[in-house]
Amino acid sequence: MTGALWCVVEDDRQGEPKKVTAELLGEARRWAGELGAPVEAVWLTDKASAAGLAQLGHWGAERVWLWEDPALAPYRGEVWTPALAALAQKEAPRAIWGAVTSRHREFMARLAARLGVGLAADCVAFALADGQLVATRPVYAGKLLARVRWRGAPGVATLRPNVFRPAEPDASRSAAVDRQALATGSASLAFVERREEAQTGLPELTEAEIVISGGRGLRGPENFVLLEALAKVLGAAVGASRAAVDAGWRPHRFQVGQTGRTISPKLYIGCGISGAIQHLAGMRTSKVICAVNKDPEAPIFKIADFGLVGDLFEVVPHLTEEFTKLKQHA
Amino acid sequence: MKLLVLVKQVPDTATQVKVAGDSRSIDVTGITWIVSPYDEFALEEALRIKEKRGQGEVVAVTAGPERAKEALRSCLAMGADRAIHVNDPTLEAADTLVAARVLTAVIKQEQPALVLTGRQAIDDDMGAVGTQVAEMLGWPCLSWVMEEAIAEDGTRVRAGRQVEGGLEVFDVPFPCILTAQKGMNEPRYPTLKGIMGAKKKEIKDLKLADLGLASLTRELEVVVLEALPPRPPGRILTGDAKDMARELVRALREDVKAI
Q1: Chain A, 156-195: which have a CB under 8 Å from a chain B CB?
Q2: Measured between beta carbons, which residues in chain A are less than 8 angstroms from residue B117?
Q3: Residues of B in contact with A77 (CB under 8 A)
């Protein structure tokens, strides 16, 4: 088997690939040599900018399979899947990787079913065993890790953002662009509208490099402004514990934990969160964990790299002040 | 209108799961089993659709070992009219494709207008089965649905899926599949009457052969299941809030270079 490693491009819906795409390409290149597999990008979009296409080459894609068609936005599984499946059957790639995003999560599952191959969702590491890729993925929301392998090819996977080292751009590299025509089919999903969330100016919870979360210790929804102020300074996302979400203080999409989002940011700061097992499962793969809690016995301190025993209403404003000073001096 | 709800029995979120002796599965001793929370949102939505329309049938379906019947009993207590259990011990180790093939076979027999399920089961966290069933049936599917409204003529549903930064709303013709995201509704608690009534409701027990399925091959194999490596012990800071804040920012910058 000499098939390529395909990385599906996640873009900003404006024609530019997102950072997670560099992470996919970086990881694919890590294994390309040993596997003897070319690294190729696959992009389904209504708009691909010239700069974006060049960027994929700089990140190490040797070829870009491109479908550019208005029918591809917004994402519809029944339009995207047959297009990529037909090419995969022809080109026989070794692996097809997407990102853990709303579109790719569904797309990769649907594609795997159409191709009759295994799917490993939310992978956080890869290794080689007997010349084959083996993926590591958290299960039970991160309480355990499973190492999995595919029986056949292509091995379909989604990769968690912020975990893999992004490809170093090299402007001397470029990718051949292979344009594909989208077969006209009859899609039954009819798009009605997109409703935007109120703009917070803060990054998405699952994509953010820094996440600041609040729990019951915040005592009410109005006090999340404390965390938002800190988040603005750090360019962080604001998350919440299940207790805070179930109390109605924050919308469900901000929940970190087993019935919310499982995340692996570079820095996690939990404020007023005691650390129920299902919450810890959702964030314990973060690189650096800080916790602020009044109760020195809070379970979150057991997994924190830095535990601040104190009143978050005093500590957090000081943190905001100190980080602001740091940013000003930087 | 027939509404089918796909559910999975999973360990309770408060359970400390441990790896079994085979290093590939979990130790099931002492585990409290529940219906996967996202599947409960799906069931609740199906019950509300039936109540709102004043007619219909809600059928709960699971594929799993004998104990999975308890999950169906919970669904019946919440208000499902009947249940189907594809009962086979090998389904415990099913990958998403195996589970999807089994459930697809049940759907083909039952021919519902709408299938609801959770956006993922909280055990293996693949979040794929609902979507894969749709692909196998050739049906449209909308994932991570936050809201739905069925058209008055009963031919389609208008549903909104959660995406980064917003909600995308589509009209989806029947038959179709929706996967439920948290926030869609608040599942009801079973009443005592519901629990008593559930004992009289039918749970149809099916074997793989009843669905025309022989043994199914997994496409994804668990090589090993393991506990997370322990995190190195951390530093605990106490004392004055300002001093702690200053020290944390210094350490994050200089010691661990996190910022």
Answers
A1: 187-195
A2: none
A3: 131, 134-135, 140-141
Measured CA to CA, the distance from residue B185 to residue A277 in angstroms comes to 24
pLDDT, averaged per 10 consecutive residues of chain B (259 residues), comes to 98 92 95 97 98 96 97 98 96 95 98 98 96 97 97 96 95 98 96 96 97 92 93 94 97 94
Distance CA B136, CA B104 (A): 7
| Out of B160, B170, B251, closest to residue A189 by CB | B170
Nearest residue to A237 (alpha-carbon basis) of A279, A271, A203: A203
End-to-end CA distance of chain B: 56
Residue B96 with chain A: CB contacts under 8 Å: 109, 112, 119
Best of A108, A137, A139 to substitute, by most chain B Cβ atoms within 10 angstroms, is A139
Digit-coded pLDDT (tens) for A25-82: 999 999 999 999 999 999 999 999 999 999 999 999 999 999 999 999 999 999 999 9
Best of B40, B131, B178 to disrupt the A interface (most A CBs within 10 Å) is: B131
pLDDT digits (tens, 9 = 90+) for B220-246: 999 999 998 888 999 999 999 999 999
B140 → closest Cβ in A78, A308, A309: A78
Helix (H) or strand (E) holding A239: strand A237-240
- The answer to whether B181 contacts A252, with C-beta atoms less than 8 Å apart, is yes
Q: What is the reported pTM?
A: 0.94
Interface contact flag, B14 A276, Cβ < 8 Å: yes
pLDDT at position A291: 98
Q: What spatial distance separates the first Cα and last Cα of chain A, rounded to whole Å?
A: 50
Residue linked to tokens 């290149």: A29
- Nearest chain B residue to A10 by CA: give it: B164
Q: What is the pLDDT of residues B88-102, one digit of tens each?
A: 999 999 999 999 999
pLDDT tens digits, residue range A278-287?
999 999 999 9
Tokens of A194: 């997109």
Report the complex ipTM.
Answer: 0.95
Query: Which 3-state string (H, E, C) describes chain B?
Result: CEEEEECCEEECCCCCCCECCCCCCECCCCCCEEECHHHHHHHHHHHHHHHHHCCCEEEEEEEECHHHHHHHHHHHHHCCCEEEEEECHHHHHCCHHHHHHHHHHHHHHHCCCEEEEECCCCCCCCCCHHHHHHHHHCCCEEEEEEEEEECCCCCEEEEEEEECCEEEEEEEECCEEEEECCCCCCCCCCCHHHHHHHCCCCEEEECHHHHCCCCCCCCEEEEEEEECCCCCCCEEECCCHHHHHHHHHHHHHHHCCCC
Residues 212 through 251 of chain A touching chain B, CB cutoff 8 Å: 234, 251
- Interface test mutation site (partner B, options A119, A136, A162, A204, max chain B beta carbons within 10 A): A119
8 A C-beta contact, residue B163 and residue A103: yes
Q: Do A146 and B14 touch (CB under 8 A)?
A: no
Residues in chain A, pLDDT under 50? 1
